What we know:
Distance between the termini: 59 Å
Strand order of the largest sheet: 1-2-3
Structural class: mainly alpha
Amino acid sequence: SVRGGYVPRKGPHGADVAMRLGGESGTALKAAGRHADIFELAAGSPDEVRHLIQRVRSAAAEHGRAGRLRFALPVRIRPEGWVGAADHQAVDVAGPPARLALA
């Protein structure tokens, strides 16, 4: 017989699965602020990325999670000899850990 009709959820043992979310809508930011471990940033200018980070941190702060959220920044690898606009400026937004990760 089942007592109370409730079976407690049994999570994975010894596994830590990070919740990755992204998006730019208000709904996406609210969901990320509440649940995400890592926020997937959209490619954009340094100012656009900086603004998105601020919006996500504000959404996370509403749930006491502003300092627990990490960010993932897309990186484009160009073939040797490629001539075009530099995309690497967005790394400056994320700070030293991101620059070290790319070194």
